[in-house]
Specification:
Rossmann fold, single chain, 6 helices, alpha/beta, 6-stranded mixed beta sheet, 3-stranded antiparallel beta sheet
Length: 229
């Protein structure tokens, strides 16, 4: 299988500070990949390198030809002084209302109800659902999601997990999720990458008796290395 994108021994320095050190991994089609790590571990830098917004200092980034990437940032907030309607915002991205139908929002009336509402009037959870719907409506090959369940309630999280599993299965998408939670991840993830400037470890999540009926899996972080101060 040809990866959508691959990092080979990628490092990134800002001045003399190494933020990402020798990181290698692949993102394949039809897979869910989760990047976890503490604050300041370099997760956002990895996302920017994948998106082409940052140039790596060392190593190699290999992408398939004409790779199309959608991105949902963490904690998007509309400026209250900018009176942008949802319809204007969606149209500015080259999409129409019907493009969002049957998306993560499921109930199409939700889209109708917010279509002529200013972004600033939407709750954080509704904006997050809208951004997720837009990202998948753009027919990407790869979707990068930074803390996608931020602001979502329990029902919203359940919809999200079911939706990305459908997208992975039926549309053959590569999905790359960034999370601060070191242990709780979607249990259908194909690959969990634990980052703390370097790639500490990687593998698949496992389920327990308590989590097997949910969409949440656990990732056991097993150290096989030493951290150098």
């Amino acid at each position: 299988m040809t990866p959508l994108i691959e990092l080979k021994e990628v490092s990134k320095k800002y001045n003399k500070t190494t933020v990402v050190d020798g990181v290698s991994f692949k993102v394949n089609p039809s897979t869910i990949n989760v990047l976890v790590g503490p604050n300041g571990a370099g997760k956002t830098t990895i996302a920017k390198i994948l998106l082409g917004l940052e140039k790596h200092t060392h190593g190699e980034v290999i992408k398939i030809k004409n790779l199309k990437i959608s991105y949902v940032p963490q904690g998007f907030k509309a400026k209250y002084e900018i009176p942008v309607l949802c319809s204007d915002f969606v149209s500015s991205l080259g999409l129409k209302k019907h493009d969002l139908y049957n998306s993560i929002l499921k109930d199409n009336s939700r889209i109708d109800n917010i279509w002529n509402v200013p972004l600033s009037k939407l709750s954080g959870g509704m904006i997050q659902m809208l951004l997720l719907a837009i990202a998948f409506a753009q027919t990407p090959d790869l979707v990068i999601l930074d803390e996608p369940t931020t602001y979502l309630d329990v029902d919203g999280e359940s919809l999200f997990y079911k939706f990305i599993e459908e997208q992975r299965t039926h549309k053959k998408l590569g999905i790359f999720i960034i999370s601060h939670d070191l242990h709780s991840v979607i249990n259908t993830a194909d690959q969990v990458l634990c980052l703390n400037h370097h790639l500490c470890c990687s593998g698949k999540p496992f389920t327990t008796f308590d989590s097997i009926e949910t969409n949440i899996g656990l990732y056991r972080h097993i150290h096989n290395h030493n951290h150098v101060a």
